[in-house]
Structures are given as structure tokens and as C-alpha cells.
Amino acid sequence: MHGPVSAAWLLVALCGATGSYCVLRLRSGVEEQRRAAGGEALMGFGMAVMAVPAAVFTPPTWAWPVYAAVFGAAALHALWTARGGPRHLHHLVGSSAMVYMAVTMAGAPATAHHAHGSSGVPLVTGALLLYFTGYVLLAGARLVPATGTAAAAGPARWGDRPELARACRLSMGIGMVTMLLTM
């Protein structure tokens, strides 16, 4: 990520905290929470590492192809699990976006990450920005509690709280929009 350093550190903290919570969700008693938590933890930690300011750490040239391979494998896994239902397609788009960003970073010299010229935002970046902006707006609206709903079963464990899982997905969506804007 090549934006303001303070914004980059905030993104590192947000994505790192999100990835850490997703690791907690791996111990959930709810099977659906456990299934999604691993991929979301990988995404959170991957985004945190990618957002570290270039002034602090410039990854070696071999890191970007490794990034692309790891998230390419995650995208294939998401594609495989999407056979069971469309709810996994978001993981496919997120992993594919990480591959796209890694390939873009690998192909650009360290000083020319903003050199898109007069052509403006590349088509893929624009499409991903539209998708993730829409996702953030929808996920934010889903966080608003419905009137008259209460937890009848008592307090849930930290890993079993669906509202926290939704908040984590929302924060990763916001992080993805931020990272795409700074490309």
C-alpha cells in the first residue's frame, strides 16, 4: 500500500485484529463459523502484511509471486467451496483481488505505483472498487440491529457471535477498498 503512513498503520492494525479474531472463530462450536474463519484469517493477516508502509519494509521481489500463489490457492479453494452455494463467492472475489494486487505490485517499480497515466483507474481496479464499496454498504446495513430481536439462548462465546463475524467482514471490506484506492 502506498498512501499516507498513518492510514497504512491503521489498516495494519485493523486487518491484524480482524485476522486474530478470525483465528478465535476457528474454535467456534458453530460449524459454519469455523469453515469461513480460516479463509478470513488468511485474508486479514495477508492484508495486514500487504499494508505495511513501504518506508518501513519493502518486500523482496520474490514475495509478490508468493503472495499471488498463496491467494491463488485460496481463490481455487473458494471456487471449489462455492459449488455448495453462492455465499462463498465473496471469498473468491476477495482472494482474486489479493492476487490482482500482488501481481500489480510485482509488475510495478517501487517508485511508480501511482503511474497510471492519463488513462485513470484501470478497469479491474475500478470493478473491484465498485464490488467492495457495494459490499461495505450492504454489510454495514446488515449490522444495524432489527427491532425486537434479542439473544434468547443467552450469551454466546466470542467465536460464536455472528455480529462480530459480520463486523470483521465489514472491516476487511473497508480495508480492501482502502488498499484498492491506494494502488
In short:
By secondary structure, the protein is an all-alpha fold.
Describe this structure in words.
The protein is mainly α. It has one domain. Helix content is 66%, strand content 0%. It has helices at residues 5-25, 31-50, 63-81, 89-107, 123-143, 162-181. The protein is globular. The N and C termini lie close together (7 Å). Residues 111-118 have low confidence and may be disordered.
Short key terms for the protein model shown above:
6 helices; 66% helix; 183 residues; single chain; globular
The overall average pLDDT, rounded, is 83
Radius of gyration based on Cα positions: 17 Å
Q: Span between N and C termini?
A: 7 Å
- Poorly predicted runs are 111-118
Number of distinct beta strands: 0
Give a quick account of the main beta sheet: strands, pairing sense, barrel closure. none
Which oligomeric form is depicted? single chain
Overall SS class: mainly alpha
Net shape: globular
Helix content: 55-70%
Order of helices and strands: HHHHHH
Per DSSP, the total helix count is 6
Domain count: the total is 1
Hey, roughly how much beta strand do the residues contain? under 5%
Could you outline the blueprint of secondary structure elements for this entry?
Blueprint: H1 5-25, H2 31-50, H3 63-81, H4 89-107, H5 123-143, H6 162-181
